[in-house]
């Protein structure tokens, strides 16, 4: 349940505008709802500040539809990641108000204006055009979580002057998400230029000895630049979420 909606409900009971029975009816699906194939977590928004996010990979279109329809009841903005175009077409037909972000491969249901809760800029830096799906997933996640997000694309180390041309924007960011495949060198370079948290995202882009992103992952884990934190291969969602938590105004 959305915290704003819950607060309004409790205030209406306290003010005598609503009955306890009505409040109980509204809260009957907390903390979760059993759909048989999934336990949909209606309590996550209250714990973490954002509703449960649906991983589309491995689920049927109908399962995604059923989960999103259940989550819609909470009133918050929703996100389903890793949804291929064929599934997305069915989901859009089955969930009113849903839209498909094709590059990020994500379904979004935006039920209320996004409240800005970030204290600074999150900058998503992408090494190559082939890394865009992962970078866009990170940017979309951070945006839905209430942050100002900017993006810089195609500035990998094969042409380092392209990155240096954006030095001012790099220094303005509060948190940086840096996405790269191949040897995964870009996060180290960025972390060496700025005194801000850098969340490194290895991608499975590459061939031969890249081993599906393992080479980039190991390169980032062994970064000699301080301040680099690494998420899993292709985990744009995890990087965007972590950046949003770091950037929240209510953090110490």
The CATH topology of the largest domain corresponds to Rossmann fold
Average pLDDT over all residues = 88
H/E series: HHEEHEHEHEEEHEHHEHEHEH
Q: Helical region count?
A: 11
- Counted up, domains total 2
**Order of strands in the sheet with the most strands?**
8-7-9-10-11
What is the general shape? globular
Number of strands: 11
Q: Identify the CATH architecture of the largest domain.
A: 3-Layer(aba) Sandwich
The largest pleated sheet is described as: 5 strands, parallel
What is the CATH top level name of the largest domain?
Alpha Beta
Helical coverage, percent range: 25-40%
Q: What is the terminal separation in angstroms? A: 25 Å
Low-confidence stretches: none
| Rg calc | 20 Å
What structural class do helix, strand and pairing data support? Answer: alpha/beta
- The amount of beta strand, in percent, is 15-25%
Please, could you describe this protein's structure?
The longest helix has 13 residues, at 132-144. It is globular, with a radius of gyration of 20 Å. With 252 residues, the chain is of the alpha/beta class. It folds into two domains: 3-109, no CATH class; 121-247, 3-Layer(aba) Sandwich (Rossmann fold). The protein has helices spanning 3-14, 20-26, 44-48, 61-72, 85-94, 132-144, 160-164, 167-172, 186-193, 214-221, 236-247; strands spanning 32-34, 39-41, 54-55, 78-81, 98-101, 106-109, 121-126, 148-152, 175-180, 198-202, 228-230. 39% of the residues lie in helices and 18% in strands. The strands form three sheets. It has a five-stranded parallel beta sheet, with helices on both faces. The chain has a four-stranded mixed beta sheet with strand order 3-4-6-5, with helices on both faces. A two-stranded antiparallel ribbon has the order 1-2. It contains eleven helices and eleven strands.
